[in-house]
Design a protein that fits this description.
The strands form 2 sheets. Strands 2-1-3-8-7-4-5-6 form an 8-stranded parallel β-sheet, sandwiched between helices. It is of the alpha/beta class. Helices cover 38% and strands 12% of the residues. Bound molecules: N-(4-aminobutyl)acetamide and zinc ion.
Amino acid sequence: MASGTGLINNEQMMSYNLLWDYPVCSIEIPERLSTSYEKLKYYGLVERCIPLSVREATEEEIMLVHSLDYIEAVKSTASMNIEELKTFSYNYNDVYFHPNSYLCAKMSLGATLQLVDAVMLSRVRNGMALVRPPGHHSQKSEACGFCVFNNVAIAANYAKKTYGTKRILIVDWDVHHGQGTQYTFEEDPSILYFSWHRYEHQQFWPNLKDSDYDVVGKGRGTGFNINIPWNKVGMGNADYLAAFLYVLLPMAYEFNPELILVSAGFDSAIGDPEGEMCATPECFAHLTQLLMPLANGKLCVVLEGGYNLRSLSESVCMTVRALLGDPVPPLVGQMVPCISAIETIQNVRAVHQQYWNFLKYHDSVFSKDSNTKKLNLGIEEGNPESNDASNAEEKKLTMISEVNQDFDEFMDSHMKKVLVLAPPARTALVGCGEKLTKLDQCLQVEEKKITLEEVGILISGGDCAHLKDENLLLSLGKIFPLIDKITKREVRNGVVVSPTLSSGAFAARYSTTVGASKVLLLLLGEADIPTDVKDDEKILVMQIYGKQDVKRQSNYYIPICWKEHNELDGDLLYALFGFILPLAYEHQPELVILTVGSNIGIQAVTLAHLTHLLQVLSEGRILVISQASDLVETLISSLLGDPTSAVRPFVLKQENALVLVKLRQELKQHWKLLQNSIN
Ligand code: X5A
Ligand code: ZN
């Protein structure tokens, strides 16, 4: 099993810079690399990574995307004087050349290919390449937008050719549209290309119709190009998260990539002069961690843009932390996507629903133009209070101007707030069998004896009838000490075997009494839940398999009563992205409790994905209570952060999907992150 995170950094790629006055290119400076690397050192992240070496790419490799004529032209810049370089540069759109550009472009690509090799040959599990020049704007015979050779696009063709990789996902979270990458693969169904970008109805560079949401690929590649055009600036954590949960992740799971390449531009982060967006650095840790269960963990992150050095370097560090498996800081603040983002997401889903099963069940029609959106929403001009999403828009704009006043001050205090220390131990076990293969990697916690009186006090006025059950008391004797350890941050997560699932509700109640301000309780299977847990707004309960047609009485106890109960793997992941995670992100739990019944029609591998993905919440603090002891091996492996294999076959049952569509309708007034359409 591959482990470790590769890191590529090389000073040679700092050896070119802008030689004349050319304002549109003045932000692409060598310090982008050194500042990022210094910050990685500062946080002690460099020494935790595996250094990978750089090489120059070969002409043959460059030709996997570019024409020979173009390569020759770029090569000729190495001996040009400033005047010639200027003239040459002005043949293209927003790009500059330097005598070292050709060399650096070959190194930038070579570094990317070295990372792909290391990941594909399992020398590392994942990694990041700090490179320049960036790549995603460059095309077959064209330099563009600071880019010379298209590193990521070439890397994709290289993986196909060298390793026979059949499906590659490219995630382009740079704030600009990687049109070069889109053009390279528009007819290629083996590459799923996802890009979000500042668009503003084509007013933003590179001002292409091709960047709009209705450009979905051509010929056999139809449906494999996903554009998320942001029509407003100020998009933030909730908007990015919504794009991942409602568009990218369901499609990516259905696509089932063997390798993921990230065109990682951090000009989509807060404070960037190009993007003018609001996402904070820890958002990139979330995006990274959400991708890590796919493709067996094979994730290559390659730098593209990012021009606010502070924001860039903090975001790079957050990304590397996630790659290393560190707990990701919670996304704080109001998790409400803005109307403009919801509208874009709705439109993307609408054009793609004919190609992807996981986008099919949706209450959406097109939202045609945002000039008419106020009418669609029935919102009166000048009355933003009437809608939280439009409030969110206003708030962001204020945030941008406040933040720009003293960016470093803002960033200092922000990072102080979000940076979290990982507990000394990762995964704990209480009273599990000695035969487990990963036993030595886990912390052993002592069980203790719990009395009926002690539990009775917890559940004030609740009915304690089932406490007569000896099994329950025994289980709680394991669960409570574990919760103590997690709450005291001595261990990040843990697993317990409990013959009765009722222990989940008691675990949740106990955690709030020992200090957790909010808890998520996700129940897979039948279990009794005392009324005082159901009624407690601190504890968000979601129960899959709730007894047929349990009535939902509150916004905090949500039974998901599915109609079909076999092979629920696809259904569960569909529910996770489209429903469970949005609610959970908005609830912002400090602890997640997952209880898993036996014989619930869900494969162990799917549960591994579930436990991996739930770790994006609550700094990875999760307690898993399993009814079946044969699941423990898989659960531990996932809690320890091991890579997960694919969930196959991946199907979704219409009956079950419709249950969620209905729940969404009922609950989206209360849980704003559930909104993915504006009607
Ligand atoms: C890689 C990248 C941006 C080019 C902007 C030109 N390029 N106006 O972020
Ligand atoms: Zn960019």
